[in-house]
Amino acid sequence: MAVCSMTGYASSDGVCSNVAWMWELRAVNGKGLDIRMRIPSGFEGLEQKMRGKCAEVLTRGNLQISLTAKEQGAATELVVNQSALDSVLKISKDLEEQGFDKPSTDGILSIRGVLEERHVERSETEQNELLAAIEQGFETALNGLVTAREAEGKALADVLLGQVSQISNLVQKVIADPSRSQEAIKDRLQQQVQNLVDSNSNFDEERLYVEAAILATKADLQEEIDRLLAHIVSANTLIGDGGPIGRRLDFLAQEFNRECNTICSKSNAAAVTAIGLELKVLVDQFREQIQNVE
Fold it and tell me: Could you give the count of Cα atoms lying within 13 Å of 270 in the half-sphere of its Cβ?
C-alpha cells in the first residue's frame, strides 16, 4: 500500500434528466474520519450510502462533501389557475350586465394569473437514472480524491525517508564521537570520582561505589543509541509498507524525541550535546510532516 496524505481535492459533474449536478470533495488533516455533507433537498437519501463509500477507502481526515443540482431547461406545461379564472368570469359577467362586450376566450386567458407554467414532474425512470448518475459521479470524485491523496503521500514519503536518513546519520555521529571511547569514559569517570572524594574527606566508601555506578550509567549512551537505531528501522519499515500509518509514526516520533532528550541530559561532551540538539530539531520537523499522513 502507498503512504497517503490526508489533504486533497476532487470533483465531478454531469447532466442527467435535465439536471446539472456537481460533486466537490475537500479533505484536510484530522485525528479521525470526520465527514460533513451538504446535500440539496430531494437528494437526502444519498447521504448514508455516500458516507459508507468514504469509510471503505478512507481512515482519517476531515472531509467536506457538497452536491449541487440545478434544473436545466426542465419541461414545463401550462395549466389553468381555476380560482383566478372563476374570479375573472365573475367580473366579466358583472360587466356584461352593465352593457360591456363579452370578452373573448383569448382575452380571458391572456389575463395574468389565469394561465400558469408548471414544471413537469420527472418520471420514476428518469428519477432513478438521475440518482444512478449522481452516485456514479460521487464514486468518480472519491476515486479522484484518493488518487490526489496518494500522489501527495508519495512526495510526503520521500520527505520522511530523507528525514529518517538524516536522523540515522546524526546517530552515527554520536556513536563515532571520541567522547564515547572507553578511554574517554574511564578518564571522565575517574575525574568525577576524584572530585567527589576531594569534596568530602569523610566520604563513605560504599557511597562512593554507588555514586561511581550512577556516574557510569549516566556516561553510557548505548541504550539510547540502540533504541534510536531500532526506531529508525521501524520508521523505514512503516513508510515502506505504507497504508494508514500516521498514528504509529506519530508515536514513533515521540519515542525519537524521548531518546534525544535523554542523550542531551546524559551527555558530558559538548559535541554530543550539539548533535542531540540537532536531532531534536530534525525530529520536530519529522513529527510536523507526519501530521499530514493518513
Answer: 0
216 pLDDT higher than 60: no
**The three three-digit cell numbers of residue 3, written as one number:** 503512504
Of 23-27, 99-103, 125-129, 154-158, give the lowest mean pLDDT range: 99-103
Grid coordinates standing for 162? 530523507
In tens, the pLDDT along 129-175 reads 999 999 999 999 999 999 999 999 999 999 999 999 999 999 999 99
| Number of CB atoms found within 10 A of residue 11's CB | 15
Checking phi first, is residue 51 left (phi over 0); if not, alpha (psi -120 to 50) or beta?
alpha
Contact 247, 231 (CB under 8 A): no
* Other residues' Cβ atoms within 10 Å of the Cβ of residue 84: 15
Bridge partners (DSSP) listed for residue 3: 243
DSSP state of 41: T
CB atoms closer than 10 angstroms to residue 230 = 12
3-state SS, residue 263: helix
Question: Considering the entire predicted model, what is its pTM?
Answer: 0.71
SS3 assignment, position 167: helix
C-alpha grid cell for residue 235? 520508521
Reported as a single tens digit per residue, the pLDDT across 177-196 is: 877 655 655 666 666 666 66
Q: In order of start, what are the domains of the chain with their CATH numbers?
A: 8-73+124-149 (3.30.230.10), 76-119 (no CATH), 152-290 (no CATH)
